[in-house]
Amino acid sequence: MPIPGTPSRAELVEHLVRTRIAGDVATPRENNLSHYRKLANSDRHYWFGLELGDRWSDEQDVLAVMAERVGVNDDPEYRYGQDTIDPELTVDGLERMAGRLRKAADGQQRVLFATGHPGGLLDVHSSTAAALRAAGCEIVVIPEGLTTEEGYVMQFASVAVLEHGATLWHTHSGEPMKAILTALERGGRPLPDLVVADHGWAGYAGQHGVDSVGYADCNDPALFIAEAEGTVQVTVPLDDHVVSPRHYDPMTAYLLAAAGLD
Known about the structure:
Elements lengths: L8 H10 L4 E6 H12 L18 H11 L12 E4 L1 H20 L3 E5 L3 H17 L3 E2 L6 E2 L4 E5 L2 E6 L2 E3 L5 H12 L7 E5 H9 L3 E6 L5 H8 L4 E4 L11 H10 L4
Helix pairs in contact: 1-4, 2-3, 4-9, 5-9, 6-7
């Protein structure tokens, strides 16, 4: 199953479709539309740490952004069944992210990694962190003793995560990133030059004015809206929890090669 070495663009597109990271993904259409509606109705759980005001109160506007930036079906009357992520848009996003990673490496910048989806994306972030460290970047070590209402804010394999009950926790919240950035500021430490993350970790960082790039699924519209508004620099569309985390390895290899970090 794994692709040896670094795949070409065409090989990666085929791999993304075969493993359902993109193409016909597991997330059903009705789930996508439900999340778009909840964001439009100001359910902050779906805002991912962003402040969207009343700018996205029409769910059809949200759908239009998702059709353009993710490749979901743009027909508002299509309400049940299979939905899609365009693999070409996934690779386009990886290439844009690679450009920002290259800038970080060239400037030996401070970079913070975080994930709200450790079951799928922890190794993606950890491998990227290792490559940037080897290129001379400082990978930000988070302050100790941070908590939110959901649990403890920890760092494993250079990636900030939420821990609860001795388990790494899936979270959409921006509160863990808020805890990190607030603690850095209070401790007189510089903020990251770049955050590489997903979910509310990426959203809150961008809202706070930190350069932020990340990954998001087709049922998580907030980060794509943030990219459209310029709050987040890059959002890569993908299914963020497929059957095996190893399926993301060719994608990571492609990203690092495109950034000149392989």
